[in-house]
Model the fold of this input.
Amino acid sequence: MCGIIGYTGVRPAAPLLLEGLGRLAYRGYDSAGIAVLADGGRIVRCRAEGKLARLLEKCQGGAEIPGTAGIGHTRWATHGAPLEHNAHPHLDGGGRVAVVHNGIIENWRELRRELAGEGYTFSSETDTEVIVHLLARAVAAGRTPAEALRDTVGRLRGTYALGVIFACEPEVLYGVRRESPLLVGRGDGEMFLASDIPAILPYTRLVWEPPTDTIVRLTPRGVTLPFPGDAPAFREVTWDAAAAERGGYASFMEKEIHEIPQVVAHTATEGEALLPPSLAGNVTGVTFIGCGSAYHVGLAGAYFGEKLTGVPVRVFVASEFRYHPVPLAPRELVVAVSQSGETADTLAALREAKRRGAYVLSVVNVVGSTIARESDRVFYTQAGPEIAVATTKAFCAQLVAVYRLFAEIATAKRGRAVGAEVLSGLAKVPDAVRRVLDGREGIRRMAHRIAQAESAFFIGRGADYPACLEGSLKLKEISYLHAEAYPAGELKHGTISLVTAGVPVIALATQSALVGKTLSGVEEVHARGAEVYLITDETLTADAPTAARFVLPHIHEMLMPLPAAVAFELLALEVAAERELDPDMPRNLAKSVTVE
Ligand code: F6R
Done:
């Protein structure tokens, strides 16, 4: 996610802002910049794409930029590629206003049309730039900076945290937020603005988060509210810098799992259609390509998509697809799924599909990544940067995107009601995930026992099977416990020879038509001494001999892999904790696999 820092005080602002940006880098970014209120009512700006080292080099560590107030930003692209002209701060043509922004302005297109119609010229593809021109227009019309900011945020729909400086007000920094985090920090003769605590922790531990839509005005002497609002209530931060980066969670993985309700709500409703409607109605088949968890997304999508649309769906591990010349039917849609957008095998498979004339849609998290650029169409999951190596929130966002894709195809082929049912099902997912998170204690108890084992098996049928594959992958990669996932009917065809007394078998049974079948598998392993952990849907009766159970909230049956995946993510996290392992950095793994 993007990061904001702002400063007004007595020290040279530029080096301090650059240092603060360094402490925000953990959040992930693809460009960065600063703007400082220099002498003589000028705003001096410096931006660079790529790593902060490039920004530091470009503005010579800030030493040459005079001024004791300014704003800085690390950008993680959402609107517009990660290039310098899209980096923040954004400046109006006259150099009167500079803005940094986190969040998404939903009505930016209509605002941009309005401003362009009045002759304002845009120098970026961002949603943010409309804010700059709205502010400049208001100031030019005689508004004070505070009034200009109030009028401007009144026009914005969406989420934002803003840091703003005006050339006409030396020493002054404005901030305002809606939904996105923004903090005010109080020092001795200096004040700070930041999207998160680590950015300012070396300078102050006194912070206050203004309520939503409260405009704050900072000078070196303190904070004032230009319009009526609650008096600032500063609190002392007791976390150390590392814990603050993780938002108080023990690991990034834990933090990212807790972001899932918000992320899935966003992916379910935001962004454009995955396919143009003309294309959605003409799709004759869907082929997924992806690696690891992204491959599991395709598998879960296949169970769901075929049932919903009647269109045949195939799923390939990308590294296999690239050397396996499967025939592609005319108008078959190829979907490349990738969090990073840089996975070498997925990219090669995409190129191979395109070489064979396929239309490729990619479902990608990182804006401007190679897979996104090389696809015919891209849907961004917008899950925010994922820091932990094992994917959690991005996996869930990918799954939601794939459900949306099939809802679109179903709408085009079978009518609006079919797609609408999926979308109303998706609306229930955030709450269901919250309830899974609330039930963590039950999962912890399971993990305590499972962590003692040397290997474990996951079983499930239908849509439960891909969720089991994901659960087993998660457990393997962060807890180093050997795990395998099987369709529940398949275990007896060989692998049951490994099921002996005390071996944990985690059975997922959420599909009403198949629950009895999965429970037969449970009986088989129980008869051989396995310890069975049953994860089921609250509305299903599942009579079976178990060591422990975990009940998932009921949502649309085909969407159950989502809460199930979250339960499995927590399970893996808890087993890793029992084994005293760092879940964020599993051995031998990289976040982005850019080699074959
Ligand atoms: C598992 C995991 C990996 C990735 C895989 C694909 O937790 O993170 O299996 O899913 O390496 O990565 P992307 O989605 O970046 O192509």
